[in-house]
Specification:
The structure holds two protein chains of two kinds.
Chain A: H1 2-19, E1 23-29, H2 32-48, E2 51-57, H3 59-71, E3 79-83, H4 84-92, H5 100-105, H6 115-121, E4 123-124, E5 127-128, E6 130-135, E7 138-143, H7 144-148, H8 150-160, H9 170-180, H10 196-208, H11 225-241, H12 251-259, E8 265-269, H13 272-276, E9 288-291, E10 307-311, H14 319-329, H15 332-340, H16 348-351, H17 354-359, H18 363-371, H19 382-397, H20 403-420
Helix pairs in contact in A: 2-15, 10-11, 10-19, 19-20
Chain B: H1 2-41, H2 59-66, H3 68-100, H4 106-118, H5 121-131, H6 138-145, H7 157-185, H8 190-197, H9 202-230, H10 234-239, H11 251-260, H12 265-293
Classes of the chains: A alpha+beta, B mainly alpha.
Chain lengths: 425, 294
């Protein structure tokens, strides 16, 4: 009897190992979108027999964990997720495997992605290295209850001669920031901590003034009227219309000010739109909406784009299984299921899905944000540019450099980096 | 005579034998990385192209020294170290003297004092960042309750470095207290008794007995604390990232950025070597001074 049960046990274990022989290991960041993927994994294992092991760590650890694995000839990660910051570095170092052959062999359609997504975390110089995973474009969070308040409407009309409504242009938005700074309320809350919070937030100001980081030949175009105006406005917002100390706020602290109802507006990552409706962390649930950062003209968006992509490293121990996973997780069905849980889409067909739009009425605004967004310069030295930009912007906000001098310093270093990277001839 | 010599040799051999494992370990984890870093500092070694193909000589050192941001970090770090060590020493010595004369509940005071020291600097940074939030933090709330204006703790260039100094003192002062207290309790009682018989006042015993006898302990404590303070990185990373502007850009954080953001490990190693040079000079000077006392 004992022998028999031992034998059946052995057989059962043997069989189950045989059935689940293959496994895919992926390093991911501990964010909501990773959680949504996690809930769907049993479905993948059932369909393909491949086990998926997610190693979830926080952002600060990811780069340090990835690099040694990518340098090795056989690493332990089958697939990885890549922040747009690292795209230049990873492709320049030759760590990512091109996906074009697999895409072609399986007829995987990449035209369904928002083109800006493919530019940011899809293709580099015509080669597809990644499939866009989720986007974190920045948008303008604003208080709808304050805009609808009759007393505010009348006062705003009297003060500016304009109707109080979601701002159609950047100029109108700045007027509203000024108007709402009264009675202990702040017109805006900024994330002035260096390097990435301030660098990312200010990029929206640059685009809103019609500026860009560089021209077609990668010559930096920051010390320009648009750049200087953007930095003057940023400085004024932090120092005059924002709460005390926002020059050192990271996004969580700035979000808390917004969530505690102390500010009219906050330019931030799209995932905070879901968070602001959570009553456990917000006193203004249901009173905040998101829209693309307005530009110089109505309909022109000035949002900064941001995204993560799925990739297969050259050091992947099992690229075929990794590709099986990638095409499953990025299929319309699974991409939609992730979005239905609150995930942030990258595919146009998911953005346009009727069920999704019925569930989240701000999905249209999210799509607009992405379609009209601008990309941050992606090259080998993106992290270094963010560092330099963060330092100089922070100096200008602290009144230790004039906006023009600060931007001239960024320009000089950016040109040098672009030359070093071979982008600028 | 001969026998004692062989015994001495045997003792020495045994001594080497016993310390060999730890020496080997120290060699592997301290000496090797130091030499590796020195080797890296004279090469063009980046994380994009991690190889020793290009020998650059002193180039990394020159570009580090010519970099105004690095020089600013060095100066700021010197100021920070001087400030924290001085304040922690004064505060620590006063508390240690007070505790030394306490008879009852000593372990309880010890326990309370050691609490901050047991905490990870990252946690300390996070907690204080929350406490010091200008509009939602408890510190400014309490200040406004008693009628003060809220303070811009981390967002003002004048204030931020002092805020970091204050948090560091809160975190590290107990280290000073514990070490100085250990020194005080090991002091001989006789000189004090003799002084009392001779009619010495309290401050006279302090300046003519306590201070001179404590000097070696004080020097060692200051030295250890200085070296630790030079390495301050966690608080900056969590609380300010070197900002606002460059107001809190301490040298360790600046080196970290050169290595892991700019990916320029060669220049970061050169910066570390320069820092190591300063620390060595300081150590040698203080060690010599201590030797001259004894």
């Amino acid at each position: 009897m004992l022998k028999q049960s031992l034998l059946s046990l052995a057989l059962a274990t043997g069989l189950s190992t045989a059935a689940h022989a293959e496994s895919v290991n992926i390093l991911m960041e501990g964010v909501p979108d990773t959680e949504y993927v996690k809930t769907l994994l049993p479905e993948f294992t059932k369909e393909t027999g491949i086990e998926v092991n997610l190693e979830v760590v926080n952002y600060a650890e990811m780069h340090t964990k990835l690099v040694p694995q990518l340098l090795a000839s056989k690493g332990s990660y089958s697939a990885i997720v890549v922040d747009f910051y690292w795209v230049g570095e990873f492709t320049k170092a030759g760590w990512l495997a091109p996906l074009d052959d697999m895409i072609k062999a399986d007829n995987f359609d990449t035209s369904v992605y928002v083109p800006k997504m493919m530019d940011l975390v899809g293709q580099v110089d015509g080669v597809t290295y990644m499939l866009p995973f989720y986007n974190y474009a920045m948008g303008l969070l604003y208080r709808t209850d304050l805009l609808e308040d009759e007393a505010n409407k009348a006062a705003y009309l009297e003060a500016t001669g304009m109707e109080l409504a979601p701002p159609k242009t950047w100029g109108e938005y700045l007027e509203q920031v000024k108007f709402f700074t009264k009675d202990g309320m702040h017109g805006v809350v900024n994330q002035g901590l260096r390097p990435d919070p301030i660098a990312m937030e200010w990029s929206n100001y640059l685009f809103a003034n019609g500026g860009e980081f560089h021209d077609a030949d990668w010559n930096a175009t920051l010390n320009t009227p648009a750049g200087v105006a953007a930095l003057e406005q940023y400085k004024t917002n932090v120092n005059e219309y924002g709460p005390l100390g926002s020059a050192s706020f990271s996004f969580d602290e700035a979000f808390n000010v917004m969530a505690q109802g102390q500010a009219y507006s906050y330019i931030t990552y799209n995932f905070f739109r879901t968070a602001i409706d959570d009553p456990s962390q917000s006193t203004v649930a249901g009173k905040v909406e998101i829209m693309p950062v307005p530009g110089q003209e109505p309909g022109v968006g000035a949002s900064l784009n941001g995204a993560w992509g799925w990739a297969i490293p050259k050091s992947s121990p099992n690229p075929e299984a990794a590709w099986t996973f990638l095409k499953w997780v990025e299929s319309k069905k699974i991409a939609k299921e992730r979005a239905m849980q609150g995930g942030s889409p990258t595919r146009i067909d998911v953005f346009d899905d009727a069920d999704l739009n019925a569930k989240f009425d701000y999905m249209g605004a999210m799509k607009d944000m992405l379609l009209t967004s601008h990309n941050f310069p992606v090259f080998t030295y993106t992290p270094q540019l963010v560092e330099v930009l963060g330092r100089e912007l922070s100096l200008a906000v602290a009144d230790e450099a004039t906006p023009a001098d600060a931007l001239a310093a960024v320009e000089a270093e950016m040109n040098e980096l672009a030359k070093k990277d071979g982008k600028q001839k | 005579m001969n026998q004692s010599k062989t015994m001495e040799a045997a003792d020495r051999r045994f001594g080497w034998f016993m310390s060999a494992p730890s020496l080997a370990l120290l060699l592997a984890v301290i000496l090797f990385p130091v030499f590796w870093a020195l080797f890296t500092s004279v090469h063009d070694y980046t994380l994009i192209a991690p190889n020793f193909d290009t020998f650059t000589g002193a180039e990394n050192y020159i570009s580090a020294i010519q970099d105004p941001a690095f020089r600013h970090s060095l100066g700021l770090t010197a100021f920070f170290v001087a400030a924290v060590v001085l304040f922690e020493f004064l505060l620590g010595f006063i508390v240690a003297l007070m505790l030394n004369s306490v008879e009852r509940f000593k372990p309880i005071y010890y326990g309370i004092l050691l609490c901050p020291l047991l905490m990870n600097p990252v946690i300390v940074g996070l907690i204080w960042r929350m406490f010091l939030h200008p509009s939602l933090g408890i510190v400014n709330y309490l200040l406004t309750v008693v009628g003060f204006e809220p303070v811009n703790w981390l967002g003002s260039t004048q204030m931020a470095i002092w805020t970091i100094i204050m948090v560091d003192i809160w975190h590290q002062v107990s280290f000073m207290i514990v070490l100085l207290l250990a020194g005080l309790s090991a002091m001989p009682k006789e000189p004090y008794e003799a002084a009392r018989v001779d009619g010495a006042r309290v401050y006279q015993s302090f300046f003519y007995i306590t201070l001179p006898l404590m000097m070696p302990v004080i020097i060692v404590t200051l030295l250890i604390r200085m070296i630790f303070a030079v390495k301050t990185y966690d608080l900056i990373y969590i609380m300010t990232r070197g900002g606002p502007g460059v107001a809190t850009d301490l040298v360790s954080y600046s080196i970290y950025r050169t290595a892991f953001v700019s990916l320029n490990v060669g220049e970061a190693s050169a910066m570390s070597a320069i820092l190591l040079g300063f620390i060595l000079l300081l150590t040698v000077y203080l060690y010599r001074y201590m030797r001259s006392l004894t």
